Amino acid sequence: MATADTINPGGIMRIRPATAATAESGLVRGALIGTALLFLVVFIFLPLGVVFAQALAKGLSTYWDSLRQPDALAAMRLTLIAAVIAVPLNLVFGVAAAWAIGKFEFVGKSLLITLIDLPFSVSPVVSGLIYVLLFGAQGWLGPWLMKHDLQIIFAVPGIVLATIFVTFPFVARELIPLFQAQGQEEEEAALALGASGWQTFFRVSLPNIKWGLLYGVILCNARAMGEFGAVSVVSGHIRGRTNTMPLHIEILYNEYQFVAAFAVASLLALLALTTLVVKSAVEWKSRRQVAKAARWDGEEQTV
Amino acid sequence: MALRFKKPSVLPGFGLALGYTVLYLSLIVLIPLAATFLKASTLSASQFWHIVSSPRAVASYRLTFGASLIGALVNLVFGVLVAWVLVRYQFPGKRLFDSLVDLPFALPTAVAGIALTTIYAPNGLLGKPLASLGIKSAYSPLGVAIALTFIGLPFVVRSVQPVLEDMDKELEEASASLGANRWQTFARVVIPTILPAALAGFAMAFARAVGEYGSVVFIAGNMPMKTEITPLLIITKLDQYDYAGATAIAVVMLLVSLLMLLPINLLQKWSSSRTANDAEVPTEELVPASV
Questions:
Q1: What CA–CA distance (Å, rounded) separates B98 from B120?
Q2: d(Cα A186, Cα A207) in Å, to the nearest integer?
Q3: pLDDT string in tens for chain B (291-residue length)
Q4: Calpha distance A111→A107 (Å, rounded)
Q5: Residues B131/B122, Cβ–Cβ less than 8 Å
Q6: How far apart are CA B130 and CA B114, in angstroms?
Q7: Are the C-beta atoms of residues B97 and B161 closer than 8 Å to each other?
Q8: Which of B114, B232, B264, B290 is the best residue to mutate to test the A interface, defined by the most A CB atoms within 10 Å of its own CB?
Q9: How far apart, in Å, are the Cα atoms of A291 and each of A176, A298, B283?
Q10: Contact flag A132-B238 (C-beta cutoff 8 Å)
Q11: Contact B106 A104 (CB under 8 A)
Q12: B192, B270 in Cβ contact below 8 A?
């Protein structure tokens, strides 16, 4: 429209809007939007809706009762324990890896990045299996563990280990590109002004990546609480003791306790929705930060 | 000149950070993976081959790879469509649809599994109409493909979306002004621009689907030779204390996922090399010249 006006300021001749040649007709546009939304409704909204509809199918009080079953509570507790251990460990690792990879140049860097991403390409079932082969009764360290009365597989430590493995790259892969993009000028300035290494890290580097860090932690946590395949292999499915929420859902579902299964599932679905909301907020926030930085750069250049 | 491991830098903490990274990586990932390959190497070549080429294993590969391919292809087509609609058009609820595209990443696979099974079961919301058309969806290979479409959905969308956002409108205008109709512009200008990103998304969706377990086991029916996926076969063997068998099949899956990394990395490099050319220009464009 704007170009049409500038070419023909008097508006004497009626000119077709300038966008017409690079836009679709209303009919095509409607059909494309309709098809895309139908696809999303069938594959995204419907499964999400079914979880809540089934959970509440027998009313709120049944829903509430299914969540208060001792086995369900034990499963929630174990899921929280696994996440509370796995997420901070992977957070510390992610920051260390991002510092080494993002701020320094060294030989073998891209190989290291590939190795860090490796757990994402391993099937969850295989992720659990590797620990069974290491710590299980038939595994390499099995006899030694047995002699010292330590149990990792079919116990909580195995569940925690499998959770750490599947959520391993989340924080690192969010932070590496951030550290890379920010360069080292601010840190060099802080050091030149007399700050110690740790002071520089906590007061300069860490605040610069806080949104990326939060983002990585949220994704890591969502996966840690929802992991099924890997945990299923190492857990041994002992009710009330080694069942996480996803494993408890499986047991309930296979026992045809659908309302109870979907009640526990609805909690995890709420967690997923919360994750998405926070993710959108963080994305919006960091985009604003980038826009602000770009504006500052621009002003510097033109002044 | 001596070869140096690391470029000199005034920043501290390299030794500590890299040391911790390598230690943690070795303990959690590398040593356990190496132990798996070591375990597999205790099998003789003929034993290994016998396990991984047994009819039941081959049937599971066929189902796993076939259904993953179908799921990834559906996502290639619909992912490009969804990305296009989300970038180019305005409609009510757009932001909601946009943020829910990531749901398959955030929703635990077991939750997705029981929800999809409920929908596509013979008496389910979509399973019933499909059944009246004579199509069995849940407890059949089609059910596996549906679950694998769900879990791979965000990959193509999220990989194509930024490319479409960065794409210069001028290219399409130039094409139109040179006499191309809309379809020609789309086929010859838009598609080549988004192709590397779309293929990278396709490959990632496929790789993810091949290893998927949680969302599939509920809907698949898990009949040996018919609807048993490879990850489930590993679990079945473990439940029967057949550790050697489980390891051999796991090694096949590990090798496949390692092999998949190569095309994925190449496609991602190809895609980012295309967009990098545009990325060098912008900062001035964002700021009005009069500031």
A1: 25
A2: 12
A3: 456 788 888 888 999 999 999 999 999 999 999 999 998 888 999 999 999 999 999 999 999 999 999 999 999 999 999 999 999 999 999 999 999 999 999 999 999 999 999 999 999 999 999 999 999 999 999 999 999 999 999 999 999 999 999 988 888 888 888 988 888 888 899 999 999 999 999 999 999 999 999 999 999 988 899 999 999 999 999 989 899 999 999 999 999 988 988 888 888 888 888 765 544 433 333 333 333
A4: 9
A5: yes
A6: 18
A7: no
A8: B114
A9: 20, 10, 10
A10: yes
A11: no
A12: no
Amino acid (1-letter code) at residue B103 = L
* B211 CA: distance to closest CA in chain A (Å): 4
Q: Which of B97, B182, B289 is the closest to A37 by Cβ? A: B97
Place of tokens 């473990």: B238
- For A220, the closest chain B residue by CA position comes to B106
- The two tokens of residue A108 are 């073998």
Scanning every residue of chain B, which has its alpha carbon at the shortest distance from the alpha carbon of A265? B111
At residue B1, what is the residue type? M
The residue to which tokens 């604003």 are assigned: A288
| Chain-chain contact of A191 with B11 (C-beta, under 8 angstroms) | yes
Pick from A253, A277, A275: nearest CA to A264 = A253
Strand partners of residue A29: none
Under 8 Å CB-to-CB from A191, ≥6 apart: which residues? A197, A200, B10, B11, B12
> Which H or E run contains B240?
none
The ipTM value here is: 0.88
- Buried b / exposed e over B189-215, threshold 16 CB at 10 Å, is bbeebbbbbbbbbbbbbbbbbbbbbbb
